[in-house]
Inverse folding.
């Protein structure tokens, strides 16, 4: 038996210490999964807690042999998707999002850090459907078939949504970059005027 098997058996027996160890081992993974899907720290923290509660309540249904971490992550993904679906704003039209070409800037360490922050901001501006599907595909590593099963949609629909979500993300990144460049030019011209 590996460590996870021992912890699962302890949780099934109702041992609080085993639950604490499971939480310590997986809380950051579960939190980050939720955060990437919902885009809000407070909601991600709540979802993380709810996911552990659900996991501990359903622990007797865990049979293995799949990895316990994957089983727990699936609970978190489902909770986060349910949360986003319940809060989904009406009236968002994904067809109105613009398409842009990729940018080929040089990639210094500073540029990469800036780009990561830009992508995080852009992800948070996406409509919930797009944020969820990109998180599952790009960050969580699910393939199209798995995403289709999780979201209960066809693989063709998954491909279409991923394509539209990527275009939307690129559009958001472009808008944020343009806003940053405009701000930088304004600051530079104000400095010259002084």
């Amino acid at each position: 038996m590996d460590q996870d098997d021992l912890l699962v058996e302890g949780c099934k027996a109702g041992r609080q210490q085993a639950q604490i160890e499971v939480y310590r081992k997986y809380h950051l993974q579960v939190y980050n999964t939720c955060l990437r899907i919902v885009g809000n720290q407070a909601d991600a923290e709540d979802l993380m807690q709810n996911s552990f509660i659900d996991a501990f309540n359903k622990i007797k249904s865990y049979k293995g042999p799949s990895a316990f971490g994957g089983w727990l992550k699936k609970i978190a993904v489902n909770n986060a998707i349910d949360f986003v679906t319940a809060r989904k704003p009406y009236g968002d039209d994904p067809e109105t999002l613009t398409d842009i070409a990729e940018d080929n800037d040089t990639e210094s360490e500073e540029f990469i850090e800036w780009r990561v922050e830009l992508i995080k901001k852009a992800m948070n501006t996406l409509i919930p459907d797009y944020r969820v599907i990109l998180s599952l595909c790009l960050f969580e590593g699910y393939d199209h078939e798995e995403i289709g099963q999780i979201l209960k949609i066809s693989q063709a629909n998954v491909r279409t949504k991923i394509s539209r979500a990527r275009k939307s993300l690129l559009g958001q990144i472009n808008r944020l970059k343009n806003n940053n460049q405009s701000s930088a030019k304004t600051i530079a011209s104000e400095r010259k005027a002084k």
Remarks:
- Helices lie at 3-12, 16-38, 41-58, 68-87, 109-125, 128-139, 144-151, 155-193.
